[in-house]
Amino acid sequence: MGRMIGIDLGDRRVGISVSDDAGMFAHPLATIEFAGWDQLIEKVACLMEKHNADLAVVGVPRNMDGSFGDRSRAALRFSRKLASRTGKTVVTWDERLTTSQADKEMIALDKSRRKRRLKIDQAAAVLILEGYMQSLRTGEKVCSGEMKDDEPPETPLKG
Questions:
Q1: I need a labelling partner for 13 at 20 to 30 A (CA). Which of 43, 58, 125, 133 fits?
Q2: Architecture of domain 3-158
Q3: What residue ranges do the domains of the chain occupy?
Q4: pLDDT on residue 90
Q5: What is the reported pTM?
């Protein structure tokens, strides 16, 4: 298995994480200031190339009841475009509460509010990627961000 990139899409910032070559550990990589979808796709594609990533895991922010809202649909559109742009496999992952979990972990590490704000998106991207990698090791369903019923499945995608 090659390297993977984890992506936490935010309104203002996008957190990026990267796995090791063995796909065992995820590490914070970058925070990208959101300035439009096309720019974001290009930056993520460049990071995937630079870090030899064969796969991207995009967090999909499902509602607490499991339904999909506007942000979920935007994440799925981004996933399709990233797969098309890179020719790589892009999977989606249910990212409910990853940002609040990352914030709690950073508070436990005694990080100041300012430091948390600067790193929270990367930490959430690490949790997304770790969840996906854990599912590969345990055989859990790997495409938990997939839409059902009223919309066609969106993952995994291959460009």
A1: 133
A2: 2-Layer Sandwich (3.30)
A3: 3-158
A4: 97
A5: 0.79
